Amino acid sequence: MAAESHSDSSSNLRIIVQRNPSESQLSELGIKSWPKWGCSPGKYQLKFDARETCYLLRGKVKAYEKGSSQVVEFGAGDLVIIPEGLSCTWDVSNAVDKHYKFDSSTSSS
């Protein structure tokens, strides 16, 4: 049986958070070879032009997805996947330090 999903395209853009992934999973993804990025506490308006996978080394974030009342919380030790095309506001309560990787699903450049 196939799972069905009935929703408009904007609600398909959802942040996925995996809490405390295993060391073997992080190693398999090659997280430690990814670039690092950090920010201080504050509010940031972000638009993701490519899918981002990131692993938070430290920090705490509440992400408010544009056009949605949904709030997604993540922080140190979480593996987060942010879909391409998502606009959101990050409310950073504790400074963020993360490894990240962008995956462009389209190679039409």
From TrEMBL:
Pfam entry (one): Cupin_3
Domain (S)-ureidoglycine aminohydrolase cupin: 26-100
Protein name per the record: (S)-ureidoglycine aminohydrolase cupin domain-containing protein
Organism of provenance: Nyssa sinensis
